[in-house]
Amino acid sequence: MRKLQISVIGYNKDCTENARKVAYEVGKEIAKAEAVLVCGGLGGVMESACRGAKENGGTTVGIIPQEEFSYANQYCDIVVCTGIGYARDFIVASSGDGIIAVGGGVGTLIELGVGYMTKKIIVAMAGSGGVADMYGGKFLDERKRAQIVIAKDAKEAVQVILEKYHNWQKHQ
Amino acid sequence: MRKLQISVIGYNKDCTENARKVAYEVGKEIAKAEAVLVCGGLGGVMESACRGAKENGGTTVGIIPQEEFSYANQYCDIVVCTGIGYARDFIVASSGDGIIAVGGGVGTLIELGVGYMTKKIIVAMAGSGGVADMYGGKFLDERKRAQIVIAKDAKEAVQVILEKYHNWQKHQ
Amino acid sequence: MRKLQISVIGYNKDCTENARKVAYEVGKEIAKAEAVLVCGGLGGVMESACRGAKENGGTTVGIIPQEEFSYANQYCDIVVCTGIGYARDFIVASSGDGIIAVGGGVGTLIELGVGYMTKKIIVAMAGSGGVADMYGGKFLDERKRAQIVIAKDAKEAVQVILEKYHNWQKHQ
Amino acid sequence: MRKLQISVIGYNKDCTENARKVAYEVGKEIAKAEAVLVCGGLGGVMESACRGAKENGGTTVGIIPQEEFSYANQYCDIVVCTGIGYARDFIVASSGDGIIAVGGGVGTLIELGVGYMTKKIIVAMAGSGGVADMYGGKFLDERKRAQIVIAKDAKEAVQVILEKYHNWQKHQ
Lengths: 172, 172, 172, 172
Known about the structure:
homotetramer; 172 residues; alpha/beta; Rossmann fold; seven-stranded parallel β-sheet; 7 strands; 40% helix; 19% strand; globular
């Protein structure tokens, strides 16, 4: 049976040191929960989260905008070369059973939007900056489909997704 | 020479009567400015804007998620069948020199995000509801690349885009 | 009512002089038939076909791989900036009621494949070289969905599409 | 370090019994070579190849056209939900260091085209039917970028990719 997949989204370039640390912990907790880490496969939050997962026995998937493998960070076990540019944000968000946001700019907001549209379980890391802090705890539109949950640390973030996911499975 | 292209984004299903009226006026003003109206080609704001343009001598392009022409509203002169689902939001936003938002849910927010990322001129219609009112006047992330301008009516919205576009052209 | 859309596909770089001439005639005949010319918006066959259409009063649409308008050839009335790279081949093929191939390499073959998969009316220009000559008159797979019709000149190519399209419409 | 990724392409619906058997063996040999099996994640050849890999300790990735996980076959360890329809064929082909074709219709031909365009190592299984037999040993266009190699069995197919890949790496 397929393992749970968690997408980690956030800063690429101009990543803060703090967001890197938070992302590393998120990757580590995903690995410890035996879930698969999915991300956009590039630098910053994506790279730190992949490293956190790899150094703790996890599995990592990088879904990159480019067509060539070489653009992916070195901590990706599996690289999906989309070649479709930033429209790959849709695929990163759709390919997680849950989503964790660490900081992030507008690309991360787009991924939050896709997750919200498809009613994913979404968690924003408190204090990680960027759109995670701007939109954490809020609804992205007036339809109020799915609130973005705020988590105080990586352990809680992964826990929220595991619980909601298992509840959801029970009701299928 | 290519004409100016303006993307109109907003509600699809569950469009309010008010947003339809605003969208019609936006389409009409785009036609009067001899610009091409680009949109997602479906119902609600997209349909009303296309109708407004067509009834005033304009040209309309619908970029639809589906692979078959039949999904487009009847006011599209040209239909682009993407077949890539809602990832077509990227293409709608990228294919406008400027963007006008009328109401809208999270799909519209995603389009605003893409426009913001690629530094388009973005205008939100005041009082049109939805994400146009939620995000009008704001920056979508902490990088503050491009403020979403609020326009009080359709004439002003198109005027803002024309002026900014011509200024931008002068500096190329 | 929407006009008929015909996608012209073929060589980009390394276009032969002969293919350019054929493409120009194809664009001209599409314009004379009052259909809209759709293409990939770049050079070679795409540019010549657009020029042929424009110099004969037609309307042209370029669906480009890039995210910026500036990559399109100067004969495109409307530019669709997909930003999804060569996956835009799917959109070029899907957005034609019929398809005309002039020469072409493997990118053109991919577009023929998409047209064949979605049962479009497909015509290959005889003597235009490339995949148009390699696959003209053939079925692309063993399912034999739709034979690629060979046309001796541009007039015949457009005629074949008009006739098949009107027959198809009668049976809807 | 990332493991080698091999994309297996071929029939979905209407898969022959023979192609299923061949696909199973291909999956098995990919697992034995400790490479990752990438595929389109649906039925027929994709499902059999995944099963062959899973029953021999391998890792499998399914890149599906849909937006929901449930469309993937049960032998996928990791599911990438693209939501972009059959344009995902581009991603399946781009995400393999090498490609193995087992039977297949026009969708498989499109994937061969993408592999050919991006100069992947491509192998067609002899006697597996469909486009694998139609195009095996041939060049897809007149540019003759990359010949599609014919392999007599699954062991040879994987061997060809391993050898060519290691040669290619040595020259980087």
